[in-house]
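Morning!

This is the sequence you dropped in the shared folder:
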Amino acid sequence: RLRLRKRLEAVAGELLCKEGFDDVIFVVHSQGSVIAYDFLVNGGGTCERLLSARPHLVTFGSPLGHLYQFYFKEYASLQAGIAELRPRLASWANLFRVDDYVGREIADPDGFVRNIVMPAGGHIDYWKEKKLAELVLERIRTPGCAATPT
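The structure's back. Tokens below.
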């Protein structure tokens, strides 16, 4: 976990702190959604630009609201983590298939996480989905700093 976090901090630091990108979209599948969530909840490293960029988060096939929340104690308070992230994210969209055995809905009573149910297809090949491409393009057209939560 630490090794992955340091790698993500290095990449984010390179892109945001050195290159100067203002907008960020995390597009992550399965375990990648857990890595991105941990990274964002824990401050996103030392780069202040990431915290001020208000990135978009697009998760798909995410085990956060199902496997992790129920089987790992550090994710039992997922609702609190989502509430903490809300002011730091421009948006969070979560796609999941009705028959995905890993990725499910991420329950959020405040409605910040926009859950999108997709037809059957299992846990793989989300990258081929038109809906995912549309969501990413929508996020590209909506800068994080100017975006309102969807």
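Headline: Strands lie at 25-29, 56-60, 91-97, 113-118.

More detail when I'm at my desk.
O.
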